[in-house]
Write a sequence for this structure.
């Protein structure tokens, strides 16, 4: 640990991370290039003078300031809206735009989806990425081959989050520098052959050629989907059911080529190229060849973010070995992180980036401590124990942040990983041989049958693990602040495990007390809530009355479907709701000092029970005379939920605007919440 704290890039990295966070959330500085140059020269001059004068405190202060400024400048430069050629500076309604494909995404029922670069607005060359939704069916198998020319393009902003605690897709895309999407029909746009050739374009053509060769052989649909994911980096063909089983088994990480895959490939290449070490400078030559082959694999499989991260990590690990015979692996990992954040600062907020590094640091710091707890003289049991400790260490390293993002914990993760890793090693090592033989049309059927059988056995094993649903612990809440508290506890526990003393024990116990105190405070704060919520639910109505840890729900949805609904589950988890009550026929509520009336498709409301200035909730497109209702009832607010036709909602909104009556539509404004 002392050696790590003396590692200068670690200090730079921490300053850069602070700079990235402050610049991203608060936009603290709007940079001018000339000011940056002058300021940099001035700071470097001061730094040199302080070093010459041996003023240690002043030198460190300016050093940290420079690191902080590097983080803010990198964030500013990488923000797409700060590019003078960014498409938003030139796009106007119904402009003609030209779009090229950068990355193919998972398609849905109606659209083929991909990240596109908007390279031209009218006659102006531009930059910037958008999400393209191409209506099915489309006629081009390789989206990288063409330009889409869209006349009178209508770019659509991502919708704001509609319900409390719902996944904020808009924010998720903004972290990737994407602010708009477009819906296009290939029959209504122009396409032209892409003239320029990029590495990604060549890689896509090569992948498609390989996949078409594989399709000639008798692999099943699921087998081809797994091969396409594990060997070619394309997950679009994986069925929802199969993906769901991998999630339940805690094995979804193997379907995205990442650190585990690159690690297996790294050890495989080292084994195959071991003969190079017998040559002069053979170790250097072998490492350089391994790095080149890893990056070739990364390019062929499409340079997905997770793959680039993993390949960069292993590149720095290899470079570290070339520089020093026995460098701490933490030095290489920190240097890799520093390099990646300078190139792409927004990676800091990427879930995959966070999980990757936490898993790796868990393996580096925790696995050796676990491994030394038990030893065996037998090779198989020793390897089995090593694999188990690696899996446990990675799980400990990622557990708090996994619970924060996904709210569930796969209890059978250890069994899943013990099964998966041997399978994955075989599938990857033999898979490259399969691809080579298929490419040259010399793949024998017996090898197809054997290889496909192994993949089917893997899928069957995953399905078996996923069938034990009771071992998937769902609906676990992990507030943001608790992530840091749990990581403090893990860190202090590791230190205590390394060397037991009273000071370290006190830190562990203090961490536990703080976690328990914060949990009790959060629980009291949440469970003492009282609120009335009109949720947004497309084509359905969903009204909730919250009283401490009880939620009374009025909805037209089937009770089973309602309770299994992801939005219901996330709200119940985040709000620590323990009791659920369902009501159907009640239309009048008095809650938190408000008189609330729901009017459904029948258009009937109880005039005799009306109190002064009630809140009216319109549901299921009632055919009512809204002007007359406003005159009779004089509502303080009218709410239209997601069960109404949009045309009705827009008509009601116009009437309310003319009558100066407050109007809230969950389509546009999201859920409406009345709090105590």
């Amino acid at each position: 640990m002392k050696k790590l704290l003396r590692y200068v890039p670690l200090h730079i990295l921490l300053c850069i991370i602070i700079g990235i966070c402050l610049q991203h959330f608060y936009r603290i500085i709007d940079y001018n290039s000339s000011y940056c140059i002058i300021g940099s020269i001035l700071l470097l001059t001061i730094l040199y003078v302080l070093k010459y004068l041996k003023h240690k405190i002043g030198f460190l202060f300016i050093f940290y300031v420079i690191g902080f400024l590097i983080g803010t400048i990198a964030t500013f430069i990488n923000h797409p809206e700060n590019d003078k050629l960014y498409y938003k500076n030139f796009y106007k309604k119904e402009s003609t735009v030209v779009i090229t494909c950068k990355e193919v995404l998972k398609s849905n029922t109606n659209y083929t989806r991909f990240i596109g670069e908007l390279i031209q607005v009218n006659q102006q060359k531009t930059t910037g990425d958008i999400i393209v939704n191409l209506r099915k069916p489309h006629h081009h198998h390789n989206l990288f081959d063409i330009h889409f020319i869209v006349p009178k393009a209508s770019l659509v902003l991502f919708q704001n989050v509609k319900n409390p605690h719902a996944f904020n897709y808009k924010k998720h895309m903004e972290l990737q520098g994407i602010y708009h999407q477009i819906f296009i029909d290939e029959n209504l746009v122009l396409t032209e052959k892409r003239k320029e050739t990029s590495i990604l374009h060549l890689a896509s053509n090569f992948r498609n050629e390989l996949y078409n060769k594989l399709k000639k052989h008798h692999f099943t649909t699921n087998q081809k989907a797994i091969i396409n994911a594990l060997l070619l980096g394309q997950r679009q063909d994986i069925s929802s059911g199969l993906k769901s089983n991998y999630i339940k088994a805690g094995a979804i990480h193997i379907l995205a080529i990442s650190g585990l895959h690159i690690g297996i490939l790294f050890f495989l290449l080292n084994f195959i190229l071991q003969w190079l070490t017998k040559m002069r400078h053979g170790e250097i030559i072998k490492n350089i060849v391994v790095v080149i082959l890893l990056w070739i694999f990364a390019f062929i499989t499409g340079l997905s973010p997770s793959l680039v991260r993993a390949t960069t990590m292993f590149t720095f690990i290899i470079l570290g070995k070339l520089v020093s015979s026995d460098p701490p692996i933490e030095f290489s990992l920190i240097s890799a992180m520093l390099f990646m954040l300078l190139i792409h600062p927004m990676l800091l907020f990427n879930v995959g980036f966070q999980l990757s590094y936490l898993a790796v640091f868990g393996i580096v710091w925790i696995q050796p401590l676990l491994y030394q707890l038990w030893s065996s003289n037998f090779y198989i049991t020793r390897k089995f124990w090593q694999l188990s400790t690696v899996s446990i260490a990675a799980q400990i390293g990622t557990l708090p942040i996994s619970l924060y993002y996904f709210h569930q914990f796969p209890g059978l993760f250890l069994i899943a990983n013990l099964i998966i890793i041997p399978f994955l090693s075989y599938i990857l090592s033999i898979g490259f041989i399969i691809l080579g033989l298929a490419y040259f049309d010399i793949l024998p059927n017996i090898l197809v049958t054997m290889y496909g059988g192994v993949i089917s056995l893997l899928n069957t094993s995953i399905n078996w693990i996923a069938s034990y649903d009771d071992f998937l612990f769902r609906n676990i809440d992990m507030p943001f602040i608790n992530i840091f508290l749990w990581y403090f506890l893990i860190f202090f526990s590791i230190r205590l495990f390394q060397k037991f003393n009273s000071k370290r024990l006190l830190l562990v116990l203090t961490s536990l007390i703080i976690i328990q105190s914060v949990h009790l405070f959060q629980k009291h704060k949440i469970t003492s809530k009282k609120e009335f919520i009109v949720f947004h639910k497309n084509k359905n109505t969903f009204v909730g009355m919250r009283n401490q840890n009880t939620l009374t729900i009025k909805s037209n949805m089937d009770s089973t479907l309602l309770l299994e609904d992801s939005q219901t589950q996330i709200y119940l988890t985040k709000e620590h709701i323990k009791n659920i009550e369902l009501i159907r026929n009640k239309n009048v509520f008095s809650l938190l000092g408000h008189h609330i009336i729901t009017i459904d498709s029948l258009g009937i409301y109880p005039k005799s029970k009306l109190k002064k200035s009630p809140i009216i909730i319109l549901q299921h497109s009632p055919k009512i005379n809204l002007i007359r209702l406003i005159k009779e009832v004089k509502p303080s607010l009218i709410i239209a939920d997601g069960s109404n036709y949009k045309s009705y909602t827009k008509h009601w909104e116009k009437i309310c605007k003319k009558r100066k009556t407050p109007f809230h539509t969950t389509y546009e404004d999201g859920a409406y919440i009345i709090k105590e």
